[in-house]
Design brief:
5-stranded antiparallel sheet; alpha+beta; 17% helix; Type Iii Antifreeze Protein Isoform Hplc 12; 2 helices; 7 strands; two-stranded antiparallel sheet
């Protein structure tokens, strides 16, 4: 008919065709079937990942069960036997052991040579770690409270000198009256009759060198008198 237009159906030319397996509900084309080779690759990857996870779990389990390597320790000087207070340390009194760093007190020695020849200011027990704090200093008053002085006292009974050692504590009493002149005196040295420079006369009493306060030293000097008090003093050993 004149004036009429024909309506043509839309052509599908130029439009992508749907894949043969159709589209999803959201309009996206569905993926094609997975090839056998691709499935094999995916299974290999899963196997590798599973094996890695199993190996990691086994490593963590074994690491938790196995004991940790022991600490080799640090060379440490210890007492090989009991050493009495006031004794001079010899090489036979010491041995070297390896001890963990956490068990070593401050100042613990690693070389036995640093302890040989030192005078023990307190008893050392076998197996005890040796530190410089256990030794008396080079000076007679080293390590003692400030203000102490050293005095030499003649004793009425020198037999007791044999049993006394440096660092022992004694009380000094006036002979005859028993009056205490120094209640806590620290023994620094002993000198038996006719055996040392303090008893050069050969016939005098034994002497004891002690650390006392300045006031106690003054009382002791007054008790000796102008002639030096030939009677000497009595000492009582304190625990």
């Amino acid at each position: 008919m004149t004036g009429s237009r024909s309506v043509r159906a839309p052509s599908s030319a130029g439009k992508p065709r749907d894949p043969p397996w159709g589209r999803t509900r959201w309009g996206r084309p569905r993926r094609g079937p997975v090839s056998r080779r691709r499935r094999w690759r995916q299974s290999q990857v899963l196997r590798i990942v599973a094996a890695a996870l199993v190996g990691l779990a086994a490593w963590l389990t074994v690491g938790a069960v196995l004991p940790k390597p022991a600490d080799p320790g640090v060379p440490t000087v210890v007492a090989a036997r009991d050493v009495a207070l006031g004794s001079t340390v010899t090489a036979d009194d010491l041995r070297v052991e390896r001890r963990p760093e956490a068990q070593r007190p401050t100042g613990a020695l690693a070389d036995p040579g640093a302890a040989v020849g030192q005078v023990v200011s307190g008893p050392l027990l076998a197996g005890e770690i040796v530190t410089p704090a256990r030794f008396r200093g080079t000076g007679q008053l080293t390590g003692l409270a400030p203000g102490l002085v050293a005095v030499s006292l003649p004793l009425t009974d020198p037999v007791l000198l044999v049993t006394l050692r440096p660092a022992d504590t004694v009380s000094v009493l006036a002979a005859g009256s028993g009056q205490p002149l120094a209640t806590v005196a620290r023994v620094l040295a002993t000198d038996l009759p006719s055996t040392g420079v303090l008893a050069a006369g050969g016939a005098g009493p034994g002497h004891l060198v002690v650390a006392v306060t300045a006031d106690e030293a003054r009382n002791l000097a007054m008790a000796l008198g102008p002639q030096g008090g030939s009677a000497g003093f009595l000492v009582a050993v304190r625990g």
